[in-house]
């Protein structure tokens, strides 16, 4: 430890950095051991951060993870420059190849925020314009990122039915249990999908770009009129999405990261 004049502030940042480096929520004891801090100090810092939304406590597992406020900070940094600057030419090339609309989004709490939107010629306009926020569980891009998070972190974001909102009465994902089933399906096939949950008659497929730890940092999606794209064509679109997501990860973090699976 350094001789900081504001030890509480320094230790708070150290705890946040430690939580961010883990693949999922951890116990207070592991924080105390790793940072060589008294257990009482760790509990005090965690309580303050819980009150401010930067940390969530999962009492059934006795662990702590990053809260919505921390996700908001991280996604704000990513979308301010690197993600949009590096992702835009890749999405433009993707749209030129597949002839459908495509976008790139990042998580912001329980929402996705659209960072890049590329429109294909003569294709219908969409609601997913740059800066638009939509509940993540409704979107293919959001589901692709949620499926890559540790299950405990998803539970922290969606602890109960009140965490869910919907755009249409037909939306099926309205509880933690239904979200769990959808994310399991997403992990099994290796890509996310939605059909009519954002806009009636439109469907999307999505793949997440990953960081050097294998955690999702962005969702890349292609959106199309559902009745015009059959299952085989959707798989072909996913193939192009995987390649684009891999290229984005390389541009952000360099070679050697896990990449989309």
From TrEMBL:
Keywords: DNA-binding, Transcription, Transcription regulation. The keyword DNA-binding applies. Pfam families: HTH_IclR, IclR_C. SUPFAM superfamilies: GAF domain-like (SSF55781), Winged helix' DNA-binding domain (SSF46785). Gene3D superfamilies: 3.30.450.40, Winged helix-like DNA-binding domain superfamily/Winged helix DNA-binding domain. It comes from Kocuria carniphila. PROSITE patterns: HTH_ICLR (PS51077), ICLR_ED (PS51078). Residues 6-68 form the HTH iclR-type domain. Residues 69-254 form the IclR-ED domain. This is IclR family transcriptional regulator. SMART domains: HTH_ICLR. The keyword Cytoplasm does not apply.
């Amino acid at each position: 430890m350094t001789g900081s004049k504001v030890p509480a502030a320094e230790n708070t940042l150290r705890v946040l950095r430690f939580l961010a480096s883990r693949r999922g929520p951890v116990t207070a004891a592991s924080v105390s051991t790793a940072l060589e801090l008294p257990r009482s100090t760790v509990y005090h810092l965690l309580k303050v951060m819980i009150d401010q939304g930067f940390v969530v406590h999962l009492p059934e597992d006795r662990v702590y993870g990053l809260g919505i406020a921390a996700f908001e900070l991280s996604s704000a940094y990513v979308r301010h420059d690197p993600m949009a600057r590096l992702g835009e030419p890749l999405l433009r090339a993707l749209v030129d190849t597949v002839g459908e609309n495509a976008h790139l989004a990042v998580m912001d709490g329980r929402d996705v925020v659209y960072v890049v939107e590329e429109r294909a010629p003569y294709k219908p306009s969409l609601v997913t314009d740059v800066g638009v926020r939509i509940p993540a569980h409704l979107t293919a891009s959001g589901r692709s990122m949620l499926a890559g998070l540790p299950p405990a972190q998803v539970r922290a974001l969606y602890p109960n039915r009140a965490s869910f909102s919907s755009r249409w009465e037909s939306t099926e994902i309205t509880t933690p249990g239904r979200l769990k089933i959808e994310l399991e399906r997403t992990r099994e096939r290796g890509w996310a999908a939605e059909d009519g949950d954002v806009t009636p008659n439109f469907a999307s497929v999505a793949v997440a770009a990953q960081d050097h730890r294998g955690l999702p940092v962005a969702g890349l999606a292609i959106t199309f009129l559902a009745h015009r794209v059959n299952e085989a064509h959707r798989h072909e679109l996913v193939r192009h999405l995987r390649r684009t997501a891999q290229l984005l990860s390389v541009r952000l973090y360099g070679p050697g990261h896990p990449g989309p699976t």
